[in-house]
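Sample pair:
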Amino acid sequence: MARNRMIRPEFWSDEKVGTLSFLQRLLFIGMWNFADDEGIIKGSPLFLKAMIFPYDNLEEKEIPEAIKSLLDEGCIFCYRQNGEQFIWIIKFRVHQRIDKPQKSNNPGPSIQNSDYHHAIFKRDNHVCHLCGKITEIGNDSNSKNFPSVDHLTPRSKGGDHYPSNLKTACSSCNKSRRNKDIGAFKEHSKNGLGMVGDEDKRKEVKEKVSKRERERESTTPQAVGPSVSDFEKFWSEYPKKVGKLDAQKAWKKNSSPGIDKILEAISQQRASPQWTKDGGKFIPNPATWINGGRWDDQPQKIIDEVEAWEQRQNSRE
């Protein structure tokens, strides 16, 4: 069932949203309308197309590609339960005000899934909801400030594993709280623990999180990829000019064998039957070609010649 949802003005100026294509943005917004009050929706491409694009003649592969882009950008979390695919919109409850939330009819992600934990941490900007401190971003699980998942309503009191009942908490706070009510825990805490409330404090925490993530990225070895000018050379030679932003993102994420080999592969493949058939109808989208490392594909002409040679050899025998 579709629901009324809110789109904040900041959505349109968000840099992450700006990297999405029109189709990806529209799919993302459409998911909000058909997601339940937990921000969970069935992830079947066929279902999403029927719900969000009932009058659009989209190719079958376009929805899965758009879902992957939203996943790569950290906008959604995908998981499987009972043999079905589901999607959780990670910051759904951050941007949507639900006055009387209804219980989800969709199964939630497994609490044993570590990727689900990281999605919770990302949603909460790695901030402990009990003490307001930024949790450590690292692998030291013995640290008192290591992030953990805390149930707002404890499991012993009927709490579930849905996203709305989960919050980021540093290990020390989570361990100290146990199954106490949050109010009682704060009241009796020796450290006067409390949630980050005022706007100045929120801004300070956000800046600290951004700084820490930048420092982490600066110390993480980055794969050396081709230059932007090489991408423009690729784009000028590739015969199908669609989804340039998607192609640029794929180009940055994938290491290539060098622009010379890529251009040579394009030159060979553009003369192949697959690419010339029906006016180029079967030429892969540029992003698909890059993500698949299609520069290593054997040209159909060579394949045909090898098969013909083998047939001649077999007939002689």
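The CA atoms of residues 78 and 87 lie 5 Å apart.
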